[in-house]
């Protein structure tokens, strides 16, 4: 057994290419995950494979073609850069690996490689700042499925969220300061949306629509409540930037139906523009690397919505990507785990 520690960075995943075939393959694996669409098996199979994928594969392919760069998917590009940069930051006692929850490099193949090397310690690091069953939970469950047959299971540590890490907060604030904050009348913190039923599962007996976790953060009861950690995340960034409460709003993007977390970010763009806001800044703290949800959904689609309704400027704060301070923060999180 090696005395080394292996760090496994895991992000959501990306199609191999923006072709319809590859996008269809990605959507099939992603949307058939029982934690992503948490409805009975047969209903999920019918909904995903007979309705969603046949209708979405072609349109999603067009969107991915807008996102794609000559070097490929931005999410994959940054994942590979971060893996290398973090490896360079850590000493020889660490090996850094990278996998995607869906598609390639697959968790199965990377964990098989790790099993052969048999480190003394394995750090599982899902790259999601806020815990959610459909992202972090799904990733951890898959790790456990793949490792359950190992003859020797090393010490395993899981970094399951880091939404309140002060260095992570400061990097986002530093990226925002690349703009003159005084130029903006309002600030929006846009997080990926989730069905309300998934939030309710975290704290049985309480209803997400009536609880007050958007107003205060209770560590004892709400530490794994996605909605609560999103609002706390926004509060911490706003405090770092001295943005008063009345000048920022939390929204949720990428919804599939009406019973998802509100306010909906796209409708928020319309509301702010119609209220006379001309210049707004949008943060996307749930994404550590620029991807379809940041570059396309916010940077293009939401900007168009805002301008069509009377707004003039929407500035998107870039994600952490391969920021040197982000690599240093990852190092610190790993070493402390």
UniProtKB/TrEMBL annotation:
Alphabetical keyword list: Cytoplasm, Heme biosynthesis, Iron, Lyase, Metal-binding, Porphyrin biosynthesis
InterPro entries according to UniProt: Ferrochelatase (IPR001015), Ferrochelatase_C (IPR033644), Ferrochelatase_N (IPR033659)
Predominant cellular place of this UniProt entry's protein: cytoplasm
Localization of this protein: Cytoplasm
Domain of life assignment: Bacteria
UniProt catalytic activity: heme b + 2 H(+) = protoporphyrin IX + Fe(2+); Fe-coproporphyrin III + 2 H(+) = coproporphyrin III + Fe(2+)
Amino acids binding Fe(2+): 192, 293
EC supergroup of this enzyme: lyase
Gene Ontology terms, MF aspect: ferrochelatase activity
Associated pathway: Porphyrin-containing compound metabolism; protoheme biosynthesis; protoheme from protoporphyrin-IX: step 1/1
A Pfam short name: Ferrochelatase
E.C. designation(s): 4.98.1.1
Family: Belongs to the ferrochelatase family.
Chain's role: Catalyzes the ferrous insertion into protoporphyrin IX.
PANTHER family in UniProt: FERROCHELATASE, FERROCHELATASE, MITOCHONDRIAL
Name used for this protein in its record: Ferrochelatase
UniProt organism field: Paralabilibaculum antarcticum
Lineage of origin: Bacteria, Pseudomonadati, Bacteroidota, Bacteroidia, Marinilabiliales
């Amino acid at each position: 057994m090696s005395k080394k520690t292996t760090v496994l960075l895991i992000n959501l995943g990306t199609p191999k290419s923006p072709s319809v075939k590859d996008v269809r393959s990605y959507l099939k694996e992603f949307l058939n995950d029982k934690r992503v669409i948490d409805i009975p098996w047969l209903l999920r199979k019918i909904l995903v494979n007979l309705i969603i994928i046949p209708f979405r594969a072609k349109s999603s392919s067009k969107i991915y073609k807008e996102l794609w760069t000559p070097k490929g998917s931005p999410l994959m590009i940054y994942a590979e850069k971060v893996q290398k940069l973090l490896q360079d930051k850590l000493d020889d006692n660490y090996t850094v690996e990278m996998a995607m929850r869906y598609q390639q490099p697959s968790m199965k193949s990377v964990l098989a490689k790790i099993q052969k090397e048999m480190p003394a310690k394995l750090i599982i690091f899902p790259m999601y700042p806020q815990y959610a069953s459909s992202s972090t939970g799904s990733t951890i469950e898959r790790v456990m499925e793949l490792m359950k047959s190992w003859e020797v299971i090393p010490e395993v540590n899981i970094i399951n969220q880091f939404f309140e890490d002060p260095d992570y907060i400061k990097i986002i604030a530093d990226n925002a300061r690349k703009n003159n904050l005084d130029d903006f009348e309002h600030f929006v913190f846009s997080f990926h949306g989730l069905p309300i039923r998934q939030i309710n599962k975290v704290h049985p007996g309480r209803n997400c629509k009536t609880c007050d976790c958007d107003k205060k953060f209770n560590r004892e009861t709400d530490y794994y409540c996605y909605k609560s950690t999103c609002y706390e995340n926004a509060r911490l960034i706003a405090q770092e930037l001295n943005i008063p409460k009345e000048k920022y709003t939390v929204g949720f993007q990428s919804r599939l139906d009406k019973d998802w977390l509100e306010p909906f970010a796209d409708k928020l763009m319309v509301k702010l523009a119609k209220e006379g806001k001309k210049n707004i800044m949008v943060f996307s703290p749930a994404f550590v690397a620029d991807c379809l949800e940041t570059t396309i959904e916010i940077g293009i689609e939401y900007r168009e919505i805002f301008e069509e309704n009377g707004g003039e400027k929407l500035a998107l704060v870039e994600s952490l990507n391969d920021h040197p301070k982000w690599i240093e923060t990852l190092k610190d999180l790993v070493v402390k785990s």
